[in-house]
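so im writing up the methods section and need the IrrE N-terminal-like domain-containing protein record in one place, dumping it here so i stop losing it
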Amino acid sequence: MQENGGPGGAVEHGFPHLAIVRASITALFRRMSADGIRAYATSLSPADAAFDASDDLHLGAQRVASAVVRALRLPDARMVVAFRPMEEAATVELTAGPEYFIEVNDRFRTHRRDLAAALSHEVAHVLLHRLELAFPDPADNEILTDTAAAYLGAGWLLLDAYREDALTHQRFGYLTPEEFGYVLAKRAALLGEDPSPWFTSPQAYEAYVRGRALADRDHRRAPLAGAGPLARRRYAKARRTGAAPAGGSGYRFEREPAGPGLRVSFPCPVCEQRVRVPVRGRLRARCGLCRTVLECET
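--- predicted struct ---
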């Protein structure tokens, strides 16, 4: 896992990986099922992630690693944590298991606060390896790993490790802070678990708020009934012409296979799987992937 650190290291912001993040959420639902995702309703607790100077280095690291393993529901996986000088924050050796070797940067010997964050990314790698879930592009796989860690309850630590001030520019992982906030907000909307009280970094909380704002807008995209007046007007104009507007509206029109009517497809605000419904006014649709019932105004 990569790490940005030091006063001169720039921290990337915004949503440059949003398409891959959304594809990652869809991939998790497809591979794990809606019930499988909901089995991760409880996040790794701050108490289980705590690792301070009073803990024995190796025993404490093993304890935290075991907590991350339990949070990601890998009870038969054993993590062996070792410390060495390295550029990355951490790496994992992916094998058939059940024992996996994680090497972490020597700085975690003394900077223990963020060890659980580094481990959450590496254990998520193990989970995806066991699920045989991967994208063709290695860079996209790192985005998938961060997304899985955050969406399944351990990756809030990766956002909390983000700190940016006059002395430190620190970010772990491959998502931007706002993208971590977006994924965590999507998880919170699905499972009803608010991570915001756990953030110790003020900058992490601010990034979560920005990510949550975008996640909230996903539920106000036309043709969802919660769309705002401007989105409704744009949708009505597009419906008359049968062509969706440019600019990332997300919906597309097509002719129904049998008959002259139109149907519209749009991304589910929960799992991003495309949902197709007839253009017939007010109706309810159930997403076939995450089973969310959606109120639509088509």
